[in-house]
Design goal:
elongated; mainly alpha; about 70 residues
Length: about 70
Amino acid sequence: MQLVRYEHAKQAIAEYKTIDEVKDFRDKALRVEAYAKQAKDYDLEHDASIARVRAERKAGELLAEMEMAKGG
């Protein structure tokens, strides 16, 4: 079941086209990560942290594309 959720999150991040979408996903992943830590659900905490990092990377990619579009 966790693999299915992970693959779904991975696919969702790949489809995001705006910084706002990615930031929203990152914020949700941070909340899940914090909750999982409190609940001592280490598997969920790990999955959420991976999703957060993927979202942060995607945000970086989108920002780089925006800079390139400006000619920077």
